[in-house]
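Hi R.,

Here's the input for the D-glutamic acid complex you asked about:
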Amino acid sequence: MIGVFDSGLGGLSVLAALVEALPGADFTYFADTAHVPYGNKEDGFIQSRVLEVGADLVAGGCGLLVVACNTATVAAVQALRAAHPGIPVVGVEPGIKPAAQESRSGRIAVLATEATARSSRLKRLIEDHAGNVEVFVEPCPGWATHVEMLQLDDPALATDIRARIEPLLDQGVDRIVLGCTHYSFLAPQLRQVIGTRAQLVDVADAVARQTRRLAADLARGSGRLLLQASAHPERLRAALPRLHLGHIAARVA
Ligand code: DGL
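And here is the predicted structure with D-glutamic acid in place:
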């Protein structure tokens, strides 16, 4: 069993890539919906949640963990690895490296939660991988909550997206990194503002490839999916078609 978790629905964007890359694997997806969003919380709180959820998944039989959340990864992936030395742990980090490599203008942006935006881990990622490319870090408070409420077409969100993206495009940014797994579900709304001026960079497929490399025998299961949540677990399955993930629903045990 492979355990995948996030604060809420965002990690389902990673789960979709994982299911495609590992069609025979069994997955447990855990959404910490009693504590979503993580992005406006203190690092210590996020870390204690990640350690608790990780321990529960391991106790439930997961032999590999995917932290399908940038915020949880920056705050706690090291602590989670230290807590489970025998278990591979795959984290999700903003795709600074591919964005910087592909950029023609030499300017890229990262959209992230407040916690990810302020983190020293993101700072280090930029120092290590952006080279001479200028990186604009844009915190996007409230966006993950809109996804959580399935309010993807809320006019207030559309206004906020425009207000944050237009200035980045005016600066000549040509790659925009989705630095929060929830934001993958806002790609259509983002593209409406971006048009052809920039491209979105999402690492879900790269995370799925890395997980496949580490999966070994876990790749061979019965293709089952368990959906769990710390609050309102029934909402997870109901959200799948709204997030264009109806094809995953058939696997739900
Ligand atoms: N989906 C998460 C991420 O990738 C966090 C969203 C939140 O809970 O604030 O950062």
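One thing worth noting: Residues 96-201 form a domain with the Rossmann fold fold (CATH 3.40.50.1860).

Cheers,
M.
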